[in-house]
Amino acid sequence: MPPKVGLKDKSHTISNQLEIQRKKRKREDNDIPNVKMMRTNDGKAVQTNSDTEDGRTLFVRNLSIDNEIQTLKDLFKQFGEIEYVLIVRNQQTQRPTGSAFIRFKDVAQARVALHKCLVTAQNSGSKEGLTINGRTLVVCPAVSRDRIAEVIESQQQGSSYGGKKKAKETDPRNLYLAREGSILPNTPAAKGMVALDWQLRNKVESKKRQKLANIQDTFVSTTRLCVHNIPFFMTDDAFRLMCLNAAKAGKQLEAQKEKSKQTKQIRGRTMQQKLQNDNDEQDSTSDDEINQQIDDVRVSIKQAIIVREKVNSEGGGIGRSKGFAFVEFNEHEDALACLRMLNNNPDALDLYVDYRHKVELAKVIDDLHKPNNEDKSNKKENQQMERDEDWQEEDEMNDFDGRQ
């Protein structure tokens, strides 16, 4: 029997809830760990399977990978007393997957929280609701392992962008990455943005959604980025250096956060435990090693190219920049770090303090058919930022692939 959802209309089953949430999912439901017994970060053992059967446990998606347990507790405690919060981690890497379990003391409290999230999502189209760091949370009842297959089958009826897809247990198109770089209104990230920024972002987002929905061979690259709104005078070398610095700074920031956590653990030791060490040299050495690892962060770029206008063979030289470029990293974590440092950041580099770098994961066309050769007139682009209206990302992406 599916758990009750606590809505006045009893016809709202878990299938109805999944349909409401489907367009906003970040990952497939198979992110739920395949274990019967788990431990929270404070060491408390919990039985996830049995806990899903009484309706007191909720499953939360679209979390940032650096969300803390206390942050979730502070957000959901408005609905009632929380028994525990469990961050879901990858079994191999032990890294957060962007989802979590939240268990309330009372089933009525869980129903109130679920009802609040579902009604808000249905009425506002996910523009408002429970958010953390600008991300709108996707909440549904936790499902036991016995019903995972049924949930996945129901979820496979449609994709996150409205297109039909074949029944698969994985997401080969990497659609869960499509939300990276998106900024919602009335969030901290949206403060200071001018109307023109919103116009350009909405235009890019609309094109991305249409391509992912209408072209089933389109997928989201894990290593390539498309950077919009770069200065016209920027060279390929300067663009490459900017991306290298951004990725390195992003990885160093993550390393600093990890160091801070380790430092708190060291300070939490009792005096008796500290006295068992040969002075404090061991801790000092550990800090030095961590600092060295932070300084030695390495980032490698496969290629970085600014898209330019084509020039006549007689004229020579290079064409005028179109204001956007592509960069491909060797590692996914490098691309993600670069995206998060550059996106909507007016202080990415002091040299370009007056520019905002619109970054999104580049869409790569995996089509075996060759594109039709059509005559394209050489149109002069407006000197203002309206030049972005005529972006030809697919054609430029093909040129970008051909330069490998």
From TrEMBL:
Residues 1-12, 368-386 have a biased composition (Basic and acidic residues). InterPro entries: Nucleotide-bd_a/b_plait_sf, RBD_domain_sf, RRM_dom, RRM_MRD1_RNA_proc_ribogen. It comes from the Eukaryota. Residues 278-290, 387-404 have a biased composition (Acidic residues). GO terms for cellular component: nucleus. It is found in: Nucleus. Residues 56-144, 273-358 form the RRM domain. PROSITE patterns: RRM. GO terms for molecular function: mRNA binding. Keywords: Nucleus, Repeat, RNA-binding. Residues 1-31, 252-292, 368-404 are annotated as: Disordered. SUPFAM superfamilies: RNA-binding domain, RBD. SMART domains: RRM. Pfam families: RRM_1. This is Putative RNA-binding protein 28. It comes from Streblomastix strix.
